[in-house]
Amino acid sequence: MTIEQANQYFAALPEGFAPAEELRAALPAAAQQVAYVGVAGTAGKTAAAALTAAVLRAAGFVTGLYRAGCEPLEQRVRINGEPVADALLCAALTAAVLRAAGFVTGLYRAGCEPLEQRVRINGEPV
User: Fold this and answer.
1) Which of 121, 117, 124 lies closest to 103 in space, CA to CA?
2) How far is CA 79 from the centre of its chain?
3) For 2-24, how does the pLDDT look when each residue is reduced to its tens digit (9 = 90+)?
4) Percent of the chain whose pLDDT exceeds 90
5) Strand 77-79's sheet: what is its strand order?
6) How far does Cα 107 stand from its chain's mean position?
7) In this structure, is the dihedral angle defined by the CA atoms of residues 64, 66, 30 and 10, taken in order, positive or negative?
8) Which of 3, 9, 66, 123 has its CB surrounded by the most CB atoms within 10 Å?
9) Which residues are bridge partners to 56 per DSSP?
10) What is the 3-state secondary structure (H, E, C) of the chain?
């Protein structure tokens, strides 16, 4: 498939498929600062996503990678090429579930970054 064919395909999609910029505008301000790369298709998604993450890491970006599969979740989620720490995954999932239930949540992550980058209330920086 050429890029022209891909553009024609996406242009022909039915109503309800919003342009990326429209979706980005619906996100909270903090989420708009994050760049996402989505990989779709019938074969090779994991390899393409892993290669893309490796290239971005080599360019100095911090990357997160999720892949579907039967392995435990902590083995399928990677941050900068390393499996996510169980404690961080549990804290993030707990915060997401509590937020979905309407609770105010807080998340603290240890690290070298300034404190305001490591503390979140309801998913937003403090």
Assistant:
1) 121
2) 10
3) 667 666 766 776 665 666 676 66
4) 2
5) 64-66, 77-79, 82-83
6) 17
7) positive
8) 123
9) none
10) CCHHHHHHHHHCCCCCCCCHHHHHHCCCHHHHCCCCCCCCCCCCHHHHHHHHHHHHHHCCCCCEEECCCCCCHHHHEEECCEECCHHHHHHHHHHHHHHHCCCCCEEECCCCCCHHHHEEECCEEC
Q: Is the pLDDT of residue 89 over 70?
A: yes
Would strands 64-66 and 124-125 be described as parallel, antiparallel, or unpaired? unpaired
| Length in residues, the chain | 126
Count of beta carbons in the 10 Å neighbourhood of residue 11:
7
Give the pLDDT of residue 105: 66
Query: What is this structure's pTM?
Result: 0.51
Residue 60 neighbours by CB distance under 10 Å:
6
Query: pLDDT band for position 126 (50/70/90)?
Result: low
* Nearest in space to 46 (alpha carbons), one of 13, 21, 20, 71: 71
91-123 residues labelled b (16+ CB within 10 A) or e (exposed): bbeebeeeeeeeeebebeeeeeeeeeeeebeee
